[in-house]
Hints:
Number of helices: 14
GO cellular component, one term: outer membrane-bounded periplasmic space
CATH class: Alpha Beta
Family: Belongs to the bacterial solute-binding protein 7 family.
Bound molecules: (2S)-2-hydroxy-2-methyl-3-oxobutanoic acid
Keywords: Signal, Transport
Organism: Vreelandella rituensis
Number of strands: 9
Protein name: C4-dicarboxylate ABC transporter
Distance between the termini: 64 Å
Shape: globular
Helix content: 40-55%
Amino acid sequence: xxxxxxxxxxxxxxxxxxxxxxxxxxxxxxxxxxxxxxxxxxxxxxxxxxxxxxxxxxxxxxxxxxxxxxxxxxxxxxxxxxxxxxxxxxxxxxxxxxxxxxxxxxxxxxxxxxxxxxxxxxxxxxxxxxxxxxxxxxxxxxxxxxxxxxxxxxxxxxxxxxxxxxxxxxxxxxxxxxxxxxxxxxxxxxxxxxxxxxxxxxxxxxxxxxxxxxxxxxxxxxxxxxxxxxxxxxxxxxxxxxxxxxxxxxxxxxxxxxxxxxxxxxxxxxxxxxxxxxxxxxxxxxxxxxxxxxxxxxxxxxxxxxxxxxxxxxxxxxxxxxxxxxxxxx
Length: 330
Ligand code: X2X
Protein backbone atom coordinates (compact mmCIF):
# COMPACT_ATOMS: atom_id res chain seq x y z
CA UNK A 1 0.00 0.00 0.00
CA UNK A 2 1.23 3.45 -0.82
CA UNK A 3 1.14 6.05 1.87
CA UNK A 4 -1.73 7.85 0.11
CA UNK A 5 -3.79 4.67 0.06
CA UNK A 6 -3.20 4.10 3.77
CA UNK A 7 -4.33 7.64 4.43
CA UNK A 8 -7.45 7.11 2.35
CA UNK A 9 -8.36 3.88 4.12
CA UNK A 10 -7.80 5.58 7.45
CA UNK A 11 -10.04 8.53 6.57
CA UNK A 12 -12.79 6.27 5.28
CA UNK A 13 -12.74 4.22 8.48
CA UNK A 14 -12.88 7.37 10.57
CA UNK A 15 -15.80 8.75 8.55
CA UNK A 16 -17.63 5.44 8.84
CA UNK A 17 -17.20 5.30 12.59
CA UNK A 18 -18.26 8.96 12.95
CA UNK A 19 -21.44 8.42 11.00
CA UNK A 20 -22.19 5.17 12.84
CA UNK A 21 -22.09 7.06 16.11
CA UNK A 22 -25.33 8.51 17.42
CA UNK A 23 -25.22 12.26 17.28
CA UNK A 24 -27.20 14.50 19.63
CA UNK A 25 -28.03 18.07 18.59
CA UNK A 26 -29.31 20.71 20.98
CA UNK A 27 -32.37 22.64 19.84
CA UNK A 28 -33.17 25.93 21.54
CA UNK A 29 -36.68 27.39 21.90
CA UNK A 30 -38.11 30.26 23.91
CA UNK A 31 -41.45 28.65 24.75
CA UNK A 32 -41.83 25.09 26.12
CA UNK A 33 -44.18 22.41 24.83
CA UNK A 34 -47.29 23.74 26.54
CA UNK A 35 -47.24 26.18 23.61
CA UNK A 36 -47.45 25.41 19.85
CA UNK A 37 -43.90 26.81 19.49
CA UNK A 38 -42.42 24.24 21.88
CA UNK A 39 -44.57 21.55 20.28
CA UNK A 40 -43.07 22.42 16.89
CA UNK A 41 -39.59 21.60 18.19
CA UNK A 42 -40.80 18.42 19.91
CA UNK A 43 -42.48 17.31 16.69
CA UNK A 44 -39.21 17.84 14.81
CA UNK A 45 -37.40 15.72 17.42
CA UNK A 46 -40.03 12.97 17.20
CA UNK A 47 -39.82 12.76 13.41
CA UNK A 48 -36.03 12.59 13.58
CA UNK A 49 -36.24 9.83 16.16
CA UNK A 50 -38.63 7.86 13.94
CA UNK A 51 -36.62 8.26 10.74
CA UNK A 52 -32.93 8.51 11.52
CA UNK A 53 -32.40 4.90 12.65
CA UNK A 54 -30.78 6.20 15.80
CA UNK A 55 -28.14 8.25 13.98
CA UNK A 56 -29.54 11.60 15.12
CA UNK A 57 -31.26 12.82 18.25
CA UNK A 58 -32.64 16.31 18.72
CA UNK A 59 -32.75 17.40 22.33
CA UNK A 60 -35.01 20.39 22.94
CA UNK A 61 -33.99 23.01 25.52
CA UNK A 62 -36.94 25.37 26.10
CA UNK A 63 -37.21 28.65 28.05
CA UNK A 64 -34.15 30.16 26.32
CA UNK A 65 -32.14 28.24 28.92
CA UNK A 66 -29.10 27.83 26.66
CA UNK A 67 -28.78 31.64 26.57
CA UNK A 68 -29.69 32.21 30.23
CA UNK A 69 -33.12 33.54 29.31
CA UNK A 70 -31.83 36.17 26.90
CA UNK A 71 -33.71 35.23 23.76
CA UNK A 72 -32.10 37.97 21.68
CA UNK A 73 -28.79 36.10 22.02
CA UNK A 74 -30.15 32.85 20.59
CA UNK A 75 -29.05 33.53 17.03
CA UNK A 76 -25.50 34.50 18.03
CA UNK A 77 -25.26 31.41 20.21
CA UNK A 78 -26.37 29.23 17.31
CA UNK A 79 -23.98 30.94 14.94
CA UNK A 80 -21.04 30.45 17.29
CA UNK A 81 -21.91 26.79 17.88
CA UNK A 82 -22.92 27.10 21.52
CA UNK A 83 -26.31 25.89 20.30
CA UNK A 84 -26.57 23.35 17.44
CA UNK A 85 -30.05 24.25 16.26
CA UNK A 86 -33.14 26.27 17.14
CA UNK A 87 -36.76 26.89 16.38
CA UNK A 88 -36.71 30.63 16.82
CA UNK A 89 -38.74 33.78 16.31
CA UNK A 90 -37.78 36.26 13.60
CA UNK A 91 -38.22 38.96 16.25
CA UNK A 92 -35.57 37.49 18.53
CA UNK A 93 -33.10 36.95 15.68
CA UNK A 94 -33.63 40.38 14.10
CA UNK A 95 -30.87 42.14 16.08
CA UNK A 96 -28.37 39.97 14.15
CA UNK A 97 -30.36 39.62 10.89
CA UNK A 98 -31.93 43.03 10.11
CA UNK A 99 -33.91 41.60 7.17
CA UNK A 100 -36.03 39.69 9.70
CA UNK A 101 -37.58 43.00 10.78
CA UNK A 102 -39.68 42.63 7.64
CA UNK A 103 -42.25 40.66 9.61
CA UNK A 104 -42.45 43.31 12.33
CA UNK A 105 -43.38 46.19 10.01
CA UNK A 106 -46.72 47.28 11.48
CA UNK A 107 -49.80 46.14 9.57
CA UNK A 108 -47.84 44.82 6.58
CA UNK A 109 -49.45 41.37 6.64
CA UNK A 110 -53.24 41.59 6.53
CA UNK A 111 -53.98 37.88 6.90
CA UNK A 112 -52.64 34.33 6.94
CA UNK A 113 -52.66 34.10 3.14
CA UNK A 114 -50.33 37.11 3.07
CA UNK A 115 -47.93 35.43 5.49
CA UNK A 116 -47.90 32.27 3.38
CA UNK A 117 -47.36 34.27 0.19
CA UNK A 118 -44.35 35.98 1.75
CA UNK A 119 -42.70 32.99 3.43
CA UNK A 120 -43.47 30.65 0.52
CA UNK A 121 -42.23 32.93 -2.25
CA UNK A 122 -39.30 35.01 -3.39
CA UNK A 123 -39.33 37.21 -0.26
CA UNK A 124 -39.08 34.10 1.90
CA UNK A 125 -36.08 32.91 -0.12
CA UNK A 126 -34.42 36.30 0.30
CA UNK A 127 -34.95 36.09 4.06
CA UNK A 128 -33.44 32.58 4.13
CA UNK A 129 -30.43 33.85 2.13
CA UNK A 130 -30.00 36.66 4.66
CA UNK A 131 -29.96 34.12 7.51
CA UNK A 132 -27.55 31.84 5.67
CA UNK A 133 -25.20 34.72 4.85
CA UNK A 134 -24.84 35.18 8.61
CA UNK A 135 -23.69 31.64 9.25
CA UNK A 136 -26.84 29.71 10.06
CA UNK A 137 -28.70 27.24 7.81
CA UNK A 138 -32.47 27.92 7.73
CA UNK A 139 -34.62 24.88 6.97
CA UNK A 140 -38.31 25.61 7.41
CA UNK A 141 -41.00 28.00 8.66
CA UNK A 142 -43.30 27.70 11.65
CA UNK A 143 -45.56 30.26 13.29
CA UNK A 144 -45.97 31.92 16.67
CA UNK A 145 -48.93 33.82 15.22
CA UNK A 146 -50.48 37.25 14.79
CA UNK A 147 -49.55 39.35 17.78
CA UNK A 148 -52.37 41.04 19.68
CA UNK A 149 -52.23 43.81 22.25
CA UNK A 150 -53.31 43.48 25.88
CA UNK A 151 -53.29 45.83 28.86
CA UNK A 152 -54.61 46.29 32.35
CA UNK A 153 -55.99 49.82 32.04
CA UNK A 154 -58.83 49.90 29.53
CA UNK A 155 -60.03 49.02 26.04
CA UNK A 156 -57.73 50.15 23.21
CA UNK A 157 -59.50 50.87 19.94
CA UNK A 158 -57.57 53.89 18.64
CA UNK A 159 -54.00 55.19 18.90
CA UNK A 160 -55.00 57.77 21.56
CA UNK A 161 -55.95 54.92 23.92
CA UNK A 162 -52.31 53.81 24.02
CA UNK A 163 -51.00 57.17 25.12
CA UNK A 164 -48.67 56.80 28.11
CA UNK A 165 -49.28 53.08 28.57
CA UNK A 166 -46.17 51.16 29.57
CA UNK A 167 -45.89 48.28 27.14
CA UNK A 168 -43.45 45.38 27.42
CA UNK A 169 -41.89 44.76 24.01
CA UNK A 170 -39.46 42.21 22.61
CA UNK A 171 -36.26 42.03 20.65
CA UNK A 172 -35.60 44.56 17.97
CA UNK A 173 -35.51 48.35 18.44
CA UNK A 174 -38.22 48.45 15.76
CA UNK A 175 -40.74 47.73 18.51
CA UNK A 176 -39.59 50.77 20.46
CA UNK A 177 -40.29 52.84 17.35
CA UNK A 178 -43.73 51.35 16.71
CA UNK A 179 -44.95 51.94 20.24
CA UNK A 180 -43.27 55.34 20.50
CA UNK A 181 -45.05 56.35 17.27
CA UNK A 182 -48.28 55.46 19.06
CA UNK A 183 -47.27 57.62 22.06
CA UNK A 184 -47.08 54.59 24.32
CA UNK A 185 -44.15 54.01 26.67
CA UNK A 186 -42.40 50.84 25.40
CA UNK A 187 -39.89 48.96 27.49
CA UNK A 188 -37.84 46.07 26.16
CA UNK A 189 -37.48 42.90 28.20
CA UNK A 190 -37.21 39.15 27.76
CA UNK A 191 -40.17 36.82 28.02
CA UNK A 192 -38.70 35.52 31.29
CA UNK A 193 -39.05 39.00 32.79
CA UNK A 194 -42.38 39.86 31.20
CA UNK A 195 -44.79 37.97 33.45
CA UNK A 196 -43.24 39.29 36.69
CA UNK A 197 -43.37 42.83 35.27
CA UNK A 198 -47.04 42.38 34.40
CA UNK A 199 -47.75 40.89 37.83
CA UNK A 200 -46.24 43.79 39.75
CA UNK A 201 -47.73 46.36 37.42
CA UNK A 202 -44.26 47.56 36.38
CA UNK A 203 -45.78 47.50 32.89
CA UNK A 204 -49.40 48.01 31.84
CA UNK A 205 -49.44 45.87 28.76
CA UNK A 206 -47.78 43.47 26.34
CA UNK A 207 -48.28 41.99 22.87
CA UNK A 208 -48.25 38.31 21.97
CA UNK A 209 -50.25 35.80 19.93
CA UNK A 210 -53.50 34.39 21.35
CA UNK A 211 -51.86 31.02 22.00
CA UNK A 212 -49.30 32.68 24.28
CA UNK A 213 -51.92 34.80 26.05
CA UNK A 214 -54.08 31.71 26.55
CA UNK A 215 -51.48 29.16 27.66
CA UNK A 216 -49.52 31.60 29.86
CA UNK A 217 -52.82 32.78 31.42
CA UNK A 218 -51.89 36.41 30.88
CA UNK A 219 -55.37 37.42 32.07
CA UNK A 220 -54.44 36.21 35.56
CA UNK A 221 -51.81 38.94 35.84
CA UNK A 222 -54.31 41.71 35.33
CA UNK A 223 -54.41 41.86 31.53
CA UNK A 224 -58.16 42.36 31.24
CA UNK A 225 -58.26 44.13 27.89
CA UNK A 226 -57.29 42.55 24.61
CA UNK A 227 -57.26 44.29 21.23
CA UNK A 228 -57.31 42.13 18.09
CA UNK A 229 -55.31 44.34 15.78
CA UNK A 230 -53.22 41.73 13.88
CA UNK A 231 -50.44 44.29 13.68
CA UNK A 232 -47.76 41.75 12.85
CA UNK A 233 -47.30 38.05 12.31
CA UNK A 234 -44.45 36.33 14.10
CA UNK A 235 -43.10 33.43 12.02
CA UNK A 236 -40.72 30.86 13.45
CA UNK A 237 -37.66 29.51 11.65
CA UNK A 238 -36.17 26.04 12.06
CA UNK A 239 -32.39 26.34 11.66
CA UNK A 240 -29.05 24.60 12.21
CA UNK A 241 -25.54 25.86 12.89
CA UNK A 242 -23.42 25.91 9.73
CA UNK A 243 -20.52 23.81 11.05
CA UNK A 244 -22.88 21.14 12.32
CA UNK A 245 -24.50 21.15 8.88
CA UNK A 246 -21.15 20.69 7.16
CA UNK A 247 -20.35 17.60 9.20
CA UNK A 248 -23.61 15.89 8.20
CA UNK A 249 -23.90 13.75 5.08
CA UNK A 250 -26.49 14.41 2.37
CA UNK A 251 -28.94 11.86 3.76
CA UNK A 252 -29.03 13.42 7.21
CA UNK A 253 -29.21 16.95 5.82
CA UNK A 254 -32.19 15.99 3.71
CA UNK A 255 -33.74 14.25 6.71
CA UNK A 256 -33.33 17.32 8.93
CA UNK A 257 -34.81 19.56 6.26
CA UNK A 258 -37.74 17.34 5.38
CA UNK A 259 -38.70 16.75 9.02
CA UNK A 260 -38.40 20.47 9.84
CA UNK A 261 -40.71 21.31 6.94
CA UNK A 262 -43.18 18.68 8.07
CA UNK A 263 -43.10 19.77 11.72
CA UNK A 264 -43.48 23.41 10.67
CA UNK A 265 -46.50 22.74 8.46
CA UNK A 266 -48.08 20.68 11.19
CA UNK A 267 -47.55 23.42 13.79
CA UNK A 268 -48.75 26.26 11.53
CA UNK A 269 -51.99 24.39 10.76
CA UNK A 270 -52.54 23.57 14.42
CA UNK A 271 -51.88 27.15 15.60
CA UNK A 272 -54.36 28.54 13.08
CA UNK A 273 -57.01 25.94 13.79
CA UNK A 274 -56.86 26.69 17.50
CA UNK A 275 -57.24 30.48 17.17
CA UNK A 276 -61.02 30.73 17.54
CA UNK A 277 -61.12 28.24 20.40
CA UNK A 278 -58.41 30.20 22.20
CA UNK A 279 -60.26 33.46 21.74
CA UNK A 280 -63.42 31.88 23.11
CA UNK A 281 -61.66 30.60 26.21
CA UNK A 282 -59.95 33.96 26.81
CA UNK A 283 -63.34 35.67 26.55
CA UNK A 284 -64.91 33.08 28.84
CA UNK A 285 -62.35 34.03 31.48
CA UNK A 286 -63.71 37.58 31.48
CA UNK A 287 -61.26 39.40 29.21
CA UNK A 288 -62.77 42.32 27.29
CA UNK A 289 -61.96 41.79 23.62
CA UNK A 290 -61.89 44.76 21.24
CA UNK A 291 -62.03 44.34 17.47
CA UNK A 292 -61.19 47.29 15.24
CA UNK A 293 -63.46 48.84 12.66
CA UNK A 294 -61.83 49.57 9.29
CA UNK A 295 -61.57 53.20 10.30
CA UNK A 296 -59.87 52.42 13.62
CA UNK A 297 -57.50 50.04 11.86
CA UNK A 298 -56.63 52.78 9.37
CA UNK A 299 -55.83 55.21 12.21
CA UNK A 300 -53.23 52.76 13.55
CA UNK A 301 -51.79 52.25 10.06
CA UNK A 302 -51.36 55.99 9.60
CA UNK A 303 -49.93 56.57 13.06
CA UNK A 304 -47.15 54.02 12.44
CA UNK A 305 -45.96 55.19 9.00
CA UNK A 306 -42.74 56.65 10.44
CA UNK A 307 -41.64 53.09 11.25
CA UNK A 308 -41.53 52.35 7.50
CA UNK A 309 -39.50 55.46 6.73
CA UNK A 310 -36.84 54.45 9.21
CA UNK A 311 -36.88 50.66 8.82
CA UNK A 312 -37.49 49.86 5.14
CA UNK A 313 -33.95 51.01 4.20
CA UNK A 314 -32.50 48.81 6.96
CA UNK A 315 -34.55 45.79 5.92
CA UNK A 316 -33.87 46.40 2.24
CA UNK A 317 -36.14 48.06 -0.31
CA UNK A 318 -35.96 44.98 -2.58
CA UNK A 319 -37.08 42.63 0.14
CA UNK A 320 -39.98 44.85 1.23
CA UNK A 321 -40.98 45.23 -2.44
CA UNK A 322 -40.88 41.45 -2.97
CA UNK A 323 -43.05 40.97 0.11
CA UNK A 324 -45.52 43.62 -1.04
CA UNK A 325 -45.91 42.06 -4.50
CA UNK A 326 -46.42 38.63 -2.95
CA UNK A 327 -49.10 40.05 -0.66
CA UNK A 328 -50.85 41.86 -3.52
CA UNK A 329 -50.82 38.74 -5.70
CA UNK A 330 -52.06 36.36 -2.95
O1 X2X B 1 -41.04 37.14 24.11
C1 X2X B 1 -42.08 36.98 23.50
O2 X2X B 1 -43.02 37.81 23.54
C2 X2X B 1 -42.25 35.76 22.62
C3 X2X B 1 -42.33 34.56 23.52
O3 X2X B 1 -43.40 35.87 21.87
C4 X2X B 1 -41.06 35.70 21.72
O4 X2X B 1 -40.09 35.06 21.99
C5 X2X B 1 -41.08 36.50 20.47
